[in-house]
Amino acid sequence: MNHFSRKGLVALSVIVLLVVGALVPPARADERAPGTDAKPAALHPNLNLSAVDLLPFDDVTRAAFNAKNPAMIYRVQGTARQLGTLNAKLARWKGKKTKQHAELVKERKRLRTVSAALMARLTHEVMAHGVDGSLIAYMNHAPTGPGRIQRYSHGLVLLLDDLTPQQRRRFEQVVVQVAGAYHAITAQKERTLLAVKQSELDKTRQGGIAQTFQRQLQVIDQRFWQLVDYTLARDQKAWIWQRLPSSKKRKSQATEHLYALPGLTASQGTRLRSLLTEIEHETAPDRAAIARVRSELNAKDKKLSGARRKALANERNAAYKRIGALNAFKREQTLSILSEAQWLEYLAIPPSVAINDRTGSYGRLVGGWKPGGAQQKQIAALNKVARQERRKTQKRAVELRRKNADYGPDSPQMAGMEMAMNGVKADQARANRAVIGKIFLEVMTAEELGRWVLGTWGYKR
């Protein structure tokens, strides 16, 4: 193989996705993969070393945990690295078992004892910060291999004990299909890049091919969370969000999502904007300091003394601590501005879901889908119900526009009215999402839904 075209690679990847979607059967309730059991054991062991990166801490909880347990997670991770190095050395050992070999075995035993004590303490502390025993049991059986954190996060959906039979059937099918796609695409990527290295392609084009595979995996993950957003109830989605690993607790366009909450009033919008502007201004110096310290620590052309590295690390940690305090203040104030229902609505927005993903019509979302005659009738009936809901919000929009005419474009009242209009639009978008959710659950066939999640079609441009 001397060269690759981008289009040819994407076409080949699509074939892999189609094969995965067609050949991987839905998992029955009694055949779920480890880590996707709907009811984990009530009794749990200590948290495994390999599961530390799955802790469901957001920025505020992590700051509180680190303040109470300074450097505990770093110690755990450092011990894990030492054990890994020792295990690798012993695995490669050849020849007679000398005194040096015995010392390595003794050191490994000591580190295992230290690790066990650390993990017992860590388990106790994380449970004090809201991580329950059933989640620890699930974390300890997390999947391994490609897309580990993504696949672990997808499996959380199956832990919900209030899924309807229809929801469970759909997600049992999709979770297994997505896991198969991650393995297939990763294997294809490795084979292709191995061949590309032997080709005449320059480094830039080789990097572009690698990015194509990564983009495919990102699309699959994004589609999965969009499916969650459209088909699950608010409380179900909030339950999942609270258990996501820290690395997945990032909302796409978080500020825009806040401004688009249903029922947002002009007063709430104005107070939110003032709060977020203040926090942005207050954290700017510390964010700049962290970037500067990181740059100096990672600079390859500088040899830093131990004392200098320690000073930089202390400066960075102090900045993180101040940002953590400001984030805690921001959450406290946000909770005082929003109603409980609005806060739950915000928590329920899954990761990787942008504001436009929640406001578009199903025609754009599933562009390329050709529903049959019976499916078209079902869609028409769903749209009829949605139109009735839209009429209610349209009346509110007309009233707001009438009030807007009384204010100048730069007046404080105009900014508040803009926020209130965003709330009206959010209510309209929620009606649209209800229709799309029913299309995914009730109208599409299992094969059509699987192909959409795996990214083989959709998104009309």
Structure description:
The protein is mainly α and 461 residues long. The chain has helices at 6-23, 59-68, 72-92, 99-128, 133-140, 148-155, 165-197, 203-231, 234-243, 254-259, 266-298, 306-337, 340-347, 362-365, 373-404, 412-443, 446-453. It is globular and about 85 Å long.
List keywords for this structure.
461 residues, mainly alpha, 3 domains, 70% helix
Offer a quick outline of the entry:
The chain is 70% helix and 0% strand. It has 17 helices and no strands.
Helix residue percentage: 55-70%
Mean pLDDT: 83
What is the number of helices?
17
| CA-based gyration radius | 26 Å
Number of strands: 0
- What percent strand? under 5%
Pick out the low-confidence regions: 1-42
Question: What string, H for helix and E for strand, traces the elements in order?
Answer: HHHHHHHHHHHHHHHHH
Number of domains: 3
**Which shape, going by the Cα principal axes?**
globular
Oligomer: single chain
Query: Structural class of the secondary structure composition?
Result: mainly alpha
Q: What's the N-to-C terminus distance? A: 33 Å
Outline the biggest β-sheet. none
Secondary structure layout plus pairing:
Layout: H1 6-23, H2 59-68, H3 72-92, H4 99-128, H5 133-140, H6 148-155, H7 165-197, H8 203-231, H9 234-243, H10 254-259, H11 266-298, H12 306-337, H13 340-347, H14 362-365, H15 373-404, H16 412-443, H17 446-453
Helix pairs in contact: 1-7, 1-8, 2-12, 3-4, 7-8, 7-17, 8-16, 9-13, 11-12, 11-16, 15-16
